[in-house]
Amino acid sequence: MKKLMVGMALTATLATAVTPGFGSIGGNQEKAYAETVTYKVTASKLNVRSGAGTTYRVIGSVVKDQTLSVVSKSGSWYKINYNGRTGYVSSDYVQASGTATPSAESTTYTVTASTLNVRSGAGTNYASIGSVTKGQKLSVVSKSGSWYKINYNGRTGYVSSDYVQASAIASPKLVVDSFKTLGNAQQVILVTADNYDTKSAKIQTFEKVDGKWKQVLTANGVLGQKGFALSKKEGDMESPTGKYTIGTAFGRYANPGTKLSYRKITANDVWVDDSKSSLYNTWQQKPANGRWTSAENMDIPAYDYGFVINYNESRTPGKGSAIFFHVGTNYTAGCTATSKEQVVSILKWLNPEKNPVIIQSPVSELDKY
Question: Cβ of 93: how many Cβ atoms within 10 Å?
């Protein structure tokens, strides 16, 4: 088998990490947003979680039309201020109105005074709840007048902007910035491994916005049981390296929201892996009636959701068939796999109008692309 996703108040606000640049959640690059966007809940009730994913525990909820205090975005999740603590909500159920301007990922805030009081409100008449020292980097949420609202030891604090230096820093260069073979692709799924022989993979997604590449998601994944293939062959338990276009999305359930062409799997669906058949490396339906002697059943949990990687489109006999991106966490027989949550997230993100491609390669050979 080729087995291989709130609070009250305020509009979105500027945010930055405790160290220069901007941090990450579960390996996903976050993007901070400026104060020109309002975020409102569209679901009747939306869970607020302790982390960016449905596997994290629910710490509360928000309701339809409630305005959220968004700090940043990580993949398909918004990091928010929720009742004085940090929470996360799915961006699928939040409507953003206005223009989002990435800003915190290119700004660092440094204390210039020997000791600077952190106060409970934006003014010297508010009580001091602690202090920061010269050279310390601040996690700034927003600015109001001459005061910065900051995250301070897990709570909200305020410091005078007169004693804080805001400095622009260069955004880190992304691996896709050096690729020369992307053509008109504006979405890239990058699957990398440390070497040819490992089944463990790193999956990253990138999208070009206003002429610049932005990272969207990072996740753990798996390859074929024997890793990557130097030259893929039918049944070798290896995943093909190379750059490929994205084919049909599929699943055993209704379309999860992908813009790709979607096909729902039935009990009779198979993928022909008989190299001698004229239907080799195509999606067909049983019964075989002599048309093939070997085919892979599609109606299995690994294919709850996924998409076809357009490998061996010429259908060269013996070169490999049924190469998919699908659900799985152990190893595959030649596909690429990750958790169901991440597969669905990627399916929702993919847009055929952006000519998406998937690149699979050991890290040492990325210079080929």
Answer: 17
Token pair for 353: 């109008």
Q: Which two tokens stand for residue 200?
A: 């463990």
Angle 68-70-71 from CA coordinates, rounded to 5°: 155
Determine the 3-state secondary structure of 162 from DSSP: helix
pLDDT at 124 over 70: yes
From the number of C-beta atoms within 10 Å of its C-beta (0-12, 13-18, 19+), residue 67 rates as middle
Structure tokens at 227: 């890793």
Q: What share of the chain is helix, strand, coil (3-state, %, to 5)?
A: 10, 45, 45
| DSSP alpha helix (H) spans, the chain | 340-349
- Confidence (pTM): 0.59
User: Which of 78, 56, 1 lies closest to 301, judged by CA?
Assistant: 1
Identify which has the larger pLDDT, 230 or 76: 230
* Separation CA 263–CA 233 (nearest Å): 27
Structure tokens at 218: 């990072």
CB 139 within 8 A of CB 151: yes
CA dihedral 51→52→54→58, nearest 10 degrees, is: 30
